[in-house]
Amino acid sequence: MTPAAAELCRLFGLEAPIFQAGMGWVTTGRLAAAVSAAGGLGVIATGGYMTADELRGHIVRVRDEAPGKPFGVNLLLPGDAPAQGTMASFDLTRIALALCIEERVPVVLSGLGDPRSVLPEIHAAGLRFVAVVGSLKAARAVAEAGADAVIVQGNEAGGHVGPIGTLTLAQLAVRSLPAPVLAAGGIATGAAVRAALALGAAGVSVGTRFLASEESDAHPRYRQAVVDADERSTVVTLACTGKPSRALRTAFVQSWEGREDEIQPYPEQAFDHFWRARAGAIEGDFEDGFLPMGQCAALIDEVLPAATIVERLAEGAAVPA
Ligand SMILES: Cc1cc2nc3c(=O)[nH]c(=O)nc-3n(C[C@H](O)[C@H](O)[C@H](O)COP(=O)(O)O)c2cc1C
């Protein structure tokens, strides 16, 4: 392992510098427990919809199935979140955060928005904090605010994305951030882990590869779609939330092509269409559903147990970079 990767593992209590990315509707206690038990960091995603009781149940499950292992909870923290009523409404996020503090969840992660206003209370409670960001500017801001690590997510990733590719963004972040950097977006193989560590990242955060795991909550048709996808199967669209998001080019996504000017800005578009993420993930609805997915789906040939995925990714970290 590289010194940076070894330091990350020490800081977070991991055996391998592999974070399983939080994915709304897809990563609950089942997958997080399997990843944490295998030596990576399993992450429950609250997705901006999960109730406190549901979240507590998933935390209990991870503690039961991966006793003593670190794990994380991903919160969506859009700075422009409405008070209530849709994806990542601030009231649900506040409740989830309070529960993370009460339950002493080892690592809190934030996606989508600016987490700086909640960072002090997370640190005051003694929890580690990691931000997922899509630009160098946001990476610098959260690192300066004291994030324990920063996940920089490139444009090839599944879910909400910025315009910059992983390779460029990760190198820029490594060059200019005081905090450990994890690369995300397009990482599905041990070779990609090796590449990320070689360019100075301390670790990786992996989404789409775990989407197609046995323990993922994604509908079997969704997981099979990852296996079937090629490198052109996904597109970046504003259709679901009004923010750019990479997803499978389903009928719903295509229905907005050529009339992008009718898409409302976030959060209005999300008010009308956020339900489609659930329909895609849980019901495997390819007509009306929205199915976030990264370009690296093209590299994924089979659904595998999460422990096997962790093992294969970790092989890329084991050799000296
Ligand atoms: C189905 C799906 C749902 C996602 N939901 C979230 C989320 O709730 N919070 C978040 O921070 N990121 C979310 N993401 C982004 C992932 O956390 C991660 O950064 C991304 O999947 C990494 O790229 P990869 O898919 O190429 O591995 C999601 C991604 C996917 C594919």
Q: Briefly, what CATH class of the largest domain?
A: Alpha Beta
Q: Strand order of the main beta sheet, please?
A: 1-9-8-6-5-4-3-2
Please, how many domains?
A: 2
Hetero groups in this structure are: flavin mononucleotide
**What is the residue-mean pLDDT, rounded to a whole number?**
94
Computed Rg = 18 Å
Distance between the termini: 7 Å
Task: Briefly note the CATH topology name of the largest domain.
Answer: TIM Barrel
CATH superfamily of the largest domain: Aldolase class I
Q: What do you see in this structure?
A:
By secondary structure, the protein is α/β, with parallel strands linked by helices. The protein has 2 domains: 3-217 and 300-318, TIM Barrel, CATH 3.20.20; 220-297, no CATH class. It is built from 14 helices and 11 strands. It is globular. It starts with a helix and ends with a helix. The model has no long low-confidence stretch (mean pLDDT 94). Flavin mononucleotide binds at residues 21-24, 26, 45, 47, 74, 76, 111, 132, 153, 156-159, 184-187, 205-208, 211, 292-294, 296. Flavin mononucleotide (FMN) binds next to strand 3, strand 9 and helix 9.
Helix-strand blueprint:
Blueprint: H1 3-12, E1 18-20, H2 29-37, E2 42-45, H3 52-65, E3 71-76, H4 90-102, E4 107-111, H5 119-124, E5 128-133, H6 136-144, E6 149-153, E7 159-160, H7 166-176, E8 181-184, H8 190-198, E9 203-206, H9 208-211, H10 220-228, E10 234-237, E11 245-248, H11 251-255, H12 268-273, H13 275-283, H14 306-318
Parallel strand pairs: 1-9, 2-3, 3-4, 4-5, 5-6, 6-8, 8-9
Antiparallel strand pairs: 7-11, 10-11
Helix pairs in contact: 2-3, 8-14
The protein binds flavin mononucleotide (FMN).
